[in-house]
Amino acid sequence: MHHDEAAYQALQRENAALKEENNRLQQRITQLENQKETLDRILNATPMLLYVYNIEEQRRVYTNRELGAMLGYDAQTYEQMGHNPLPQLMHPDDLQRFPQHMLRLSQIPDGDVREFEYRMQHANGSWIWVLSRDAIFARHADGRPCEIVGAVSDITSRKHSEQALRAANQRVDRMFEYSPLASIEFTIDGRVIRWNQAAERIFGWSRPEALGQDVLSLIVAPEVRPQIDDIIEQLIGGTIVSSRNDNITSDGRTITCQWHNSVFTDENGQVTAVLSQAEDITEQVQREADLRMFQALVEQTPDGCAIVRLRDGQFVFVNPAYHDLLGYGDEILQMNIGDVFAETPDHVRNLMGEIRQHGRWQGVLHYRSKDGRVFPGQVSAVLISDEQGQPLFMAGIVRDLTEQHNAEAERAALQQQIIDAQQAALRELSTPLLPMSDNTLVLPLVGTIDSMRAQQVMEALLEGIARYQTETAILDITGVRVVDTQVAQALIRTAQAVKLLGARVVLTGIQPHLAQTLVHLGVDLSDIVTRSTLQAGIAYAMSGSVKA
């Protein structure tokens, strides 16, 4: 009995201990369940897909959510893909790389992680990018990995951003490389980092020659180095400065460049590099200088200069001399070219058409100033065309010819007076009358006698006979080379006219060839006394034979 009692008490104690152990186990189970519930909530709340994968069996051991849900597939569709849907969902190009990833993964020690980026096909047909970060989860007794654990996250947005950034960088790089401006990136100590094609073309240094060199020594003219050093200091200090200065090329030429500068900074705002872009404006600077000289010439020339738009004939530019010439002031820029001419509108239109056809015109036109004065102007007009050869403007230079015309008229009048006086003197010299006595005049003729001179001979001889009241007029033609029909007839008319005045003509000095000519011409000299020489003629007149 005593023995049974002891056994019973022992059973009681053992039962109590079991109950206590059971309570502890129940509490532990409850605690583990709570921890599992918390862990499940954490795992399910994480944005990543967590999984355990059996390498040998190629199946999922655990996932915190279905991959299909991440990809937008319903449960039934995803279930139909089987226990290993990767071959169906992974992009073919990435699927080829997957075995290499698994091989590398099997060779890593515990605790190491390997990443694998790949594309998966979404239910809507698009491809999304995911990142899998994998590690060894379990190994066999011989150390071979049998299970891996991984976390998969959707990195599509990041990939798109990276692609957009790469595309943007590529565009920037292409813009840098193919920019028509010389683009040079250099460090704050002046070493060239990048050098584009335009920089090669403008400065002559190739990219390999320029990279790593001091940019200022390569392209900055020594005389402007202090100015450029100051600009570099400002840029490093964060102040953006542009400039126009002389530069040098690899072959020693000096060119003028317009520079546009910017800077690159780090996360702290410190300048790390400078980007300078330059345009070769040497020709532009020369054109500007030429334009300034031309402008000064146009502004100072005494001739009026104007430019007219062909489309509507409106003035777009007039110089001071043109203002002074017409007196319209600034209002002329609102006027039409036809408003300043005194010519008819049809004449102006025809003139404009001729200029369009030939490209230039010179001549005299009449202008009407604001005060109503009409004056002649010497005009030179040319067309101004664009780069395609389309005429856009007409440029004209006009000079007031009023004073010139007045001076020419005065000169013409004076010249006519001189000519008249010279002609009178020549007439006297060509018909010299020599009184030999009270009754005799001698008129010696030399050279060629044309109709006009024959008329002068007649007039001079008749005037001399009338003036001196002589009875005999001796015409000596010893020095006359040629006598034609008109001259012979003029001599006969002269003799007849002299006879009407009561005097008589004695013709002397007829040479043999002239005698032949007179006979050949059939000239009747019966009313004219002839003698072979002037001396014979004078002797004849002095002897009184004339009266006989």
Provide an overview of this structure:
- The structure is a single chain.
- This protein is 45% helix and 27% strand.
- By secondary structure, the chain is an alpha+beta fold.
- The strands form four sheets. A five-stranded antiparallel sheet has the order 2-1-5-4-3, sandwiched between helices. It has a five-stranded antiparallel sheet with strand order 7-6-10-9-8. Strands 12-11-15-14-13 form a five-stranded antiparallel sheet.
- α15 (451-468) packs parallel to α16.
- The longest helix has 44 residues, at 2-45.
- The radius of gyration is 61 Å and the shape is rod-shaped.
- It starts with a helix and ends in a 6-residue tail after the last helix.
- The mean pLDDT is 85.
Please list the strands of the largest sheet in the order they lie side by side. Answer: 2-1-5-4-3
User: What is the mean predicted local confidence, pLDDT?
Assistant: 85
How would you classify the quaternary structure? single chain
How many strands, which pairing sense, and closed or not: the largest β-sheet?
A: 5 strands, antiparallel
* Fraction in helix: 40-55%
CA radius of gyration:
61 Å
Question: Which blocks of ≥5 consecutive residues have pLDDT under 50?
Answer: none
Q: What best-fitting shape do the alpha-carbon axes yield?
A: rod-shaped
Question: What's the number of helices?
Answer: 18
Category from helices, strands and their pairing: alpha+beta
How much of the sequence is in beta strands? 25-35%
The number of distinct β-strands equals 20
Q: Could you tell me how far the N terminus lies from the C terminus, measured between alpha carbons in angstroms?
A: 232 Å
